[in-house]
Amino acid sequence: MVEKEERTDLAEKNLIWISELSKKDIPIAGGKGANLAEMFNLGMPVPNAFVITAHAFLKFVTESKLHKRILEIINTIKFEDTRDLEDKAKQVRGMILATDFPKELAEEIKEAYVYFDETDHNGITNNHYVAVRSSATTEDLATASFAGQQETFLNIKGPDKLLEAIRKCWASLYTARAIYYRNKNNFDQGTSLIAVVVQKMVDSEKSGVMFSINPATSNKDEVVIEGVFGLGEGIVSGAIEPDTFILDKNSGELKEKRIGKKKVAFIKGIEGKTEIKDLDAKKQDEQVFGLNEINELFNLAIKVEKHYNWPQDMEFALENNKIYLVQSRPVTTIKEEKEKITKIITSDDKILLKGLAASQGIASGVVKVIYSLGELDKIKEGDILVTQMTNPDMVVTMQKSKAIVTDEGGMTAHAAIVSRELGIPCIVGAKIATKVLKDGMIVTVDGTRGFVYEGEVEIEKEESINGVGSEIKKEIEAPYQIEEQSNENDKLIQSKSSEITLDVQDISNEEILVKVNCDLPYVAKKAAATGADGVGLVRIEFVIAQSGVHPAEYIRENRMNDYTIVLVNGLKEIAEEFKGKPIWVRTSDIRTDEYRTLKGAEKEPRESNPMLGWHGIRRGLEQSEVLKSELRAIKQLHDMGHNNVGIMFPFVVNVKEMIKAKQYMKEVGLIPEDTDFGVMIETPASCWIIQELCNLGIKFISFGTNDLTQLTLGVDRNNERLAYLYSEMHPAMQEQIKHVIAVCRQNGVKTSICGQAGSNPDMVKFLVSQGISSISANLDAVDLVRKTISEVRG
Asked: CA 357, CA 403: separation in Å to the nearest integer?
C-alpha cells in the first residue's frame, strides 16, 4: 500500500530524477525513461538523468486547451492518404511549438539543469551538454516498439535551448509515423502521452547499437553489435554503413564480422551543433571496436537481457574508452520458431545486388526508386521501394511496399527496424541500389540472404528453426566474408593441408572425447544437453563479469573472500550439469584494456601493447591474492564433491611460472599429484618447453589456437587488412602442434584444443591424425566435430 501511495505521488510530479524511478514507471517516465532508471539503479554504466514526466506534458496540453483541438484534428485524418496525414501531423506539431512554456515548470527544469553541473559525472566530461530524449508512454513495450518515432536532440547547452528541445520532443509525439503507428496498433490517441529524458551527454568517440538476439533472423543464440565513429545519430538514422559483429551467445565467440565503409562521422561541433565530418580513406575502412570492447559489449548485452528476461535492443556510447548505456528496450519483432520461410531454388538466377539482410522473407514486384519525399506518390500497393535510406516521413509508403532496398544503413537503420515491424523483406547497405535498379524493373528481393535477383524468381517453402535454416545461413555468410588475397604462402598452406595423410593405425582404437566450451553458468544446461564428454574450457572472466567488479578491486577493498564466493557460485552451476565429466577451468586472463565497465577497471594501468602485457599467469603470480582466491574456489568445489573440476593456467612462457603456481596450489590445500591441472598452449614458448612442463607433473594441455596463431605468425588477429595471413593451418602451426602432442603422448599427458580452430574440419582431421585426446568446440559445433571424427575414422 505504501509503494502504491509513493507511485501516486511520483505520478503527480513534473520532474523526477531517474534514481527515484524503475521499469514499472512507464506511465510516469515513458518507456525510455523507465528502462534507463532501471539500469541506472542496478549500477550499470548509465549517465545520470532527470525526467520531465508525462504528467507535466498532460498538464501543458490541458491547461493550454490544446488537447481537445489536437484530437479533433487527428480524428479527421485519412490514414492511407500520405499527404493528408503529413499535413495534419505538421499542423498539430506547429500548435505545440507555438504555445508558451509553463513558467513554473520552466523554473523547475532550469534548477535541475544547474544541479547537473554541480554533481559527479561518473567519468563523463563536465561540458554542460545534455541529450534530450523523447520517452512516450506507449514506446518500448514488449508488444510494440515505437522505436525512432519521437525526437532526440543531442549536445544541448544552456537552459533556454533545453526548454526549446523539450517542447520539440513534446511535439514529436505527433509525427506522421507516430500517429499512424498508434492508429494501426489500436492505441488511444487521447491517452498516449510523452515524457522527456534529460541526460548528461556522453561525448562519443564511438557509438553503436546491440541486440541480445539477431534482429534480422530472430536467432536467439546470437548477439549482434553495430558501431560507428562519433555520435550514434549516424547509425540510428541509417546515414552510415556501420561495422557489424555477430557473436555466439553461448560461447561469446565472434562468428561473423562485416566492416562497413564509414564515409562520415557525426560529431559535436564547436557550439554543440551536430556536424558531419568526412573521414579519410584509411579511417573509413578501420574497424571501430577492438576485441576487448566487443567482449565488454557482449557481456553487457547478456547482463541486461538476463535482468529483463527478454531480448533487448540497446544503444551505447564510448567516451575515454568507457562504455555507457544510453538506452535499452525490448525487441518486439521476434519470429516464432519453426516459422515457414521461402527458399530460392533456381540456381541460374541473375544476382543484381547484394547487401545486408535486415528483414527476412522473399518478395517480387515492380521497382520504384524514390529520390525525395515528393516522389512518394509513385509507390503503389505491392511495389518494391528502392531509396538511399528511408525516414519517418515515409512510413505510410513503406506500409504499401512489398519489399525495401536501400543504399545505406545497417541492421538498426530506420528501414531495417520498420521493415521488421511490418514483416516485409528488407536489404540495407546495398550501396548502389538506386543506380542499378530502375523504375519499372521486376526484381525479387531476398531479405533472408541479402540478394536482389533479376525478374520473378521461382520459390518454394521450407521449414526452418529460429527463422533461418542451416543451408540458408551458409549463404547469408558469403557476402560478409573478406575476399582473401592470393599469394604463394596461401598456396603453400593449402597444399600442405591437402597433403595430410591420416596414419591412424596406432591410434585408431583410441577414444577421442568431444567436449564443449562453456563460460556462462546459465548456458550449462544447454551445453550438457549436447551430450558432450566434458567441458574443455571455462573462461572464468565471464563469471567475474557477471559480478560487475574487477578482481583487482576486490584486493583494494580487502574482499577476497567475496571474490571466491562469486566464483564458487558461478562455477558450481556448470559443475552440477557435468557431474562425473572433466571440467577444465582457466584461471583469469584479463588484459588491462579489457572489461573496462567493471568496477575498479578504470584504475587499470595503461599499456602500449596489452595483448603482450600484464595478463594470464604472469599477472596471477604477481597479484597472488587473485590467483589464490581462484584456486580456493576450485578447492571448495572439490570439497562439495566436484572433484572433476580441473585447473588450467594461461599464457605460460617458462617453467618457473608453473613451479610457483604449484606452490600456490599447495598453500590453498590442493595437492598437485591428486589434482587435475594443466596449461594452455597459446605461446610458441610453451610449445618448445613442453617436455619440462610434463616433468612438473601436468595432467593435460589444451591448445589456445587464437593466441598461438597470432604469436607464431606475428599477425594481429583483429586486423582486417591482415586477415589473409592468419591461418591456424600454417605449416609452422602444424609443426608446433605435432611436437606438443607427440611429447605429451610419450609422457601420458592428455591433449586437447579449445580455440576456434577446433571446429574447423581440416584441423579436426589433422588433430585426429596426430592422436589428440579430445576436442572442445562451441556448443553449436559439437555435433559437427563428432561427425568429422567419425568420417575420418571410417
From this structure: 12
Find the angle CA(466)-CA(472)-CA(474) to the nearest 5 degrees.
Answer: 110
Compute the distance between CA of residue 450 and CA of residue 460 in angstroms, rounded to an integer: 17
Pick 2-200's CATH classification: 3.40.50.300, 1.10.3720.10, 3.30.310.50, 3.30.1490.20: 3.30.1490.20
- 569 pLDDT more than 70: yes
pLDDT tens digits along 422-435: 789 999 989 899 99
Contact 309, 294 (CB under 8 A): no
pLDDT at 272: 74
Sequence letter at residue 94: G
* Spatial contact of 334 and 211, defined as CB atoms under 8 Å apart: no
- Give Cα 39 distance to the centre of its chain: 17
Catalytic residue among 55, 414, 550, 615: 414
Q: What is the pLDDT of residue 104?
A: 92
Tens-digit pLDDT profile for residues 495-515: 333 333 334 335 556 889 999
DSSP per residue, 314-346:
EEEEEETTEEEEEEEEE---PPPTT--EEEE--
- Cα of 475 vs its chain's centroid, Å: 22
Does 154 have pLDDT greater than 60? yes
Say if CB 338 and CB 196 are below 8 A apart: no
Q: Three cell numbers at 551?
A: 578482481
C-alpha cell at 255: 562468428
426 in active site: no
**Segment 255-265 mean pLDDT:** 90
Answer whether 479's CB lies under 8 Å from 353's CB.
no
- Using only C-alpha atoms, the chain has a radius of gyration, in whole angstroms, of 28
pLDDT of 700 strictly over 80 = yes
**Domains of the chain by residue range:** 2-200, 206-330, 344-480, 488-792
The verdict on pTM exceeding 0.85 is: no
* Cβ(761)–Cβ(784) below 8 Å: yes
The predicted structure's pLDDT at residue 706: 87
Confidence band for 793, pLDDT divided at 50, 70 and 90: confident
426, 687, 694, 754: the active-site residue: 754
Residue 376: CA atoms inside 13 Å, Cβ hemisphere, count? Answer: 19
Query: Residues 19-42: pLDDT tens digits?
Result: 999 989 999 999 899 999 999 998
Is residue 744 part of the annotated active site? The answer reads no
Which long-range contacts (C-beta less than 8 Å, at least 24 apart) are formed by 104-112?
104/14, 105/14, 105/15, 105/52, 105/56, 105/59, 105/60, 106/163, 108/14, 108/15, 109/15, 109/52, 109/159, 109/162, 109/163, 109/166, 109/198, 110/159, 110/162, 110/163, 112/15, 112/17, 112/50, 112/198
476, pLDDT greater than 50: no
With cut-offs at 50, 70 and 90, classify the pLDDT of residue 727: confident
Helix, strand or coil for residue 75?
coil
**Averaged confidence pLDDT in the chain:** 85
Conformation bin of residue 736: beta by default, left when phi > 0, alpha when psi is -120 to 50:
alpha
CATH superfamily of this structure's domain 206-330: ATP-grasp fold, B domain (3.30.470.20)
Residue 9: pLDDT above 80?
no
Instruction: Give the Cα separation of 768 and 388 in Å (integer).
Output: 51
Asked if pLDDT for residue 550 goes beyond 90, the answer is yes
**Angular region, 693: left φ>0, alpha ψ -120 to 50, beta rest:** alpha
In the chain, the amino acid numbered 19 is S
Superfamily of domain covering 488-792 = Phosphoenolpyruvate-binding domains (3.20.20.60)
**What CA–CA distance (Å, rounded) separates 524 from 534?**
11
Which of the following CATH numbers is that of domain 344-480: 3.40.50.2300, 1.50.10.100, 3.40.630.30, 3.50.30.10?
3.50.30.10
Would you state the cell numbers that stand for residue 73, as one nine-digit string?
Answer: 484534428
Q: Is the dihedral of CA 100, 106, 110, 116 positive or negative?
A: negative
